Amino acid sequence: MNQTEIATIAANILYLDDVSEIEFNRSLFGDYSMSSLDYVDFAFELKGESGKEFDPDELWPINTMMDNPDFYENGQWTDAGREALKKVFNGFTDLSEENPSPESLYNLFSVDFIQHRIGTL
């Protein structure tokens, strides 16, 4: 899928009048206020349009990872969690921060990231 196709789905889910309102590198969660319900709809639409089989938790596995004490415990990423994060963001961005905050990760959830992630699923 290309960026415009992904942005169009996001714009429809977020009830934006014009797809050009979405900048490909801006966070859909932070900058466009995508809610968790919007996200589920978005993931479902992406799945249908992309022809790829994935669960919403595979597209954005951060929340599931944070619920797993093997990956995230007491507000800190474990060694296994940091390795898992590197795999999720491999080829998209270098996570040089030792303990990236949830907010900094949510800021990466952009059209650009989604295009990258769909390509790896």
Automatic annotation (TrEMBL):
Residues 5-60 form the Carrier domain. It holds the Pfam family PP-binding. This is Carrier domain-containing protein. It comes from Pseudoalteromonas phenolica.
